[in-house]
Amino acid sequence: MILVTTPDFPAGKIIRTLGMVRGSTIRARHIGKDISSAFRHLVGGEMKEYNEMLTEARQIATKLMVDEAIKLGANAIVNVRYSTSSVLQGAAEILAYGTAVIIETPNQ
Fold first, then answer.
1. pTM reported for the whole predicted model
2. How many domains does the chain have?
3. In this structure, are residues 51 and 45 in contact, taking their beta carbons and an 8 Å threshold?
């Protein structure tokens, strides 16, 4: 599956647009990791625990989006975007979305 953040695919031609696809996940903080991050918040430094949580959440949301595109028969997703929102204190939603398309590359 090809993913691009541009609205078109420069290395090939979009021959069919299949529609918007999305994937989302809601992740909550872990109490043990919260303690470490709270300490870093006081003394400064990167909050690696939250970075890891959000990286994992983006990967899950991307996979769910790709799975939806595959079900539609797409071989690419264009105009990929990510959105984050706080659902409640200590939990965040990551949403990945884009347009599922079928592309024709010069090699085809």
1. 0.80
2. 1
3. no
